Amino acid sequence: MAIARRLRWYLKKEGIEYEVLPHPHSRSSLESALEAHVPPNLFAKPVLLEDERGYVMAIVQASRRIDLDTLCRQLHRDLELASEPEIGDLFGDCDAGAMPPVGEAYRIPVVYDDALKMLPEVYFEAGDHEDVIHVRGPDYLRLLSGSLHGEFSEAL
To answer: What's the domain range around 25?
Structure first.
């Protein structure tokens, strides 16, 4: 697949320069980072959450996990993990479990962990389990501009 169609379109529309890095097949963001020889703290990992108000994509480093209670308090919402079928419907151009952490490309609101603001470069899933996108940190933050952010992650 190389890169999800919608992601490619969105990166082009936003004028973001990127590099596609192939790697051996992986099953998670953390594994993708390791297979691509990328430090997990430079790898952005999305988690799709939902409640009665709709979906939210929460993004943290692959070396961390979401503290869901903290995030729910910060957003004043009662979020839970979205189901695999729902994720498949929303990210139809991506392999299951390989959605890119660029919610705006899929019209999904984003909240990202503040630790992502400090990264000089960012890597993330391209939409399959064998390719990673590499962008400059400031360019990734441009993709997240207008999104909510806060401190809601903890070390794995």
So the answer is: 5-155
Q: Residue 20: what are its φ and ψ, rounded to 5°? A: -100, 125
- What per-residue string of b and e applies to 87-103 under the rule 16 or more CB within 10 Å gives b? beebbebbbebbbbbbb
Of 71, 88, 91, 66, which is closest to residue 10 (Cα–Cα)?
Answer: 91
Based on the structure, what is the number of domains in the chain? 1
Burial class (CB in 10 A: 0-12, 13-18, 19+), 1: middle
Burial 21-43 (b: 16+ CB within 10 A, else e): bebeebeebbbbbbbbebebebb
Q: Is the pTM of this model over 0.85?
A: yes
Alpha carbon distance 34, 152 (integer Å): 23
The reported pLDDT for the residue numbered 63 is 96
Amino acid in position 111: V
pLDDT higher than threshold 80 for residue 77 = yes
Q: Which tens digits make up the pLDDT trace of 30-70?
A: 899 999 999 999 999 999 999 999 999 999 999 999 999 99
3 in Cβ contact with 93 (< 8 Å): no
Percent of the chain with pLDDT over 70: 99
